Amino acid sequence: MRARLPHLPWKRLLAGGAAAFLLLAGLVVGAGAWIYSQAVTSNVGDLDFANELAIPPLAETTVAPDGTKEVDLRFTAGQTHLVDDGPSETWGLNGSYLGPTIRAARGERVRVNVTNGVDETTTLHWHGMHLPARMDGGPHQMVEPGATWSPSWTIDQPAATLWYHPHLHGATADHVYRGAAGMFLVDDPANAPDLPDSYGVDDVPLIVQDKSFDGDGDLDTGGRPFSSVGILGDTIVVNGTVNPHLDVTTEKVRLRVLNASNARIYDLGFPDGRVFWQVASDAGLLAQPHRTDRVQLSPGERAEIVVEMAPGDEAVLRSFPPDLGVGFTDRFAGGDDTFDILQLRAAAELAPSPPMPGELATIDAPDPGDAETTRTFRLSGTRINGEKMDMGRVDEVVTAGATEIWEVTNRGGEPHSFHPHLVHFSVLDVDGEPPPPELAGWKDTIYVPPDTTIRFIARFDGQADPTTPYMFHCHVLRHEDRGMMGQFVVVEPGDEPDLSSTRGDPGHDH
Ligand code: C2O
Ligand code: CU
Question: How would DSSP label each residue in 145-200?
Fold first, then answer.
């Protein structure tokens, strides 16, 4: 005979189960709240700005017999003392961290001899440059260890603060994070308003990056929970300097700010509330100076600002919590973070600076009535129009010389941006509204908040090349590496693209 089942105290078991469930739920909520509360970073109050800001040297140039300006850039691995804890393993160009500032004028022919002195294949891309696809330095123009790639082109675009960085497919975030990047300034002597322009004195490049370090000074590459954007560091490095100050010796100082970070978005201003002028966006001067107290930059974007100082004045350039438009989860993408970036220290006597010009540039944006094509791009997850990057697939075929409207929509809950190679563009509207002043000049990279549609217009002039694509992509580097990128080819009317000769082939071009 079977033993009788023991009488089970169901009610007590149920009550116990409910208690355990509540306890577990409480733990989950508590852990969530803890993680949420930890997801805010700030360095405000931690800095004494003891270090003098490093200024990237101007690249040495030589002039070839045909008048071409030549620059040598060598990828270099080394150890850099970024923080006091110890040296970091880094990459740079012609040095162990970052690279020299290249400077060339509109109309000038340039050649850059890019030598890969590190032990990984990489590329070097000229972000914002209008140039033939084979010279672009995108994922197809791979430079193997020991090889030299020598693109050359004629500068043909308005004065602007451009930059260069690696673009190896799948490894861009890593290569940029290690420090391989630099500025490329385009001058246009025929259209040069009277702005501060002594390099490193009153015209100062600021390459702004956020880093995380382990206790020994090595770069830490961990991301944040609940966010796909990747690295969000707790230490700000400007031109390779932590805790930096800049000695200002003139009444006005022009800061060319580049967000060279992997994922972080900055909203720059001053805690004393001072207003300044924004004079340029990514790809050129604004039509008029824009008086403002904030400028927001997503990765890859640039702004030139002019700040007025009084003798003996001190001012801190700070990044306030940026408006990412992601809602509650903004925080996990850095949306609640505050960072002091740089202290400006004015001398007791300041040299006079020119008055701010009323007009800066004529922006001859194409007329929407001339657009032959409108293309739509849907950003979601790490895909564009549902596709992940395939180096052998052509996503868009553009006719050389065409004027086109590109309509970009963020359909996911994450921060994304959009950057087409080759062209600079003019924003037509943001969710149907005309662009605000800071987005009304030439751009090449733009933040696209969730559930937002941005339309821009661009002229795809330049050399057709059916065999080599240009890229368009999200400039959050982890997204880009994970495939949030597509390819367009510029062809003569009636031509077909043909990538068979270039697919995955290291582009040696001696
Ligand atoms: Cu700055 Cu395709 O990149
Ligand atoms: Cu993205």
Answer: TT-EE--EEE--S-SEEEEEE---TTTHHHHHHTT--EEEEEE-GGG--S----BT
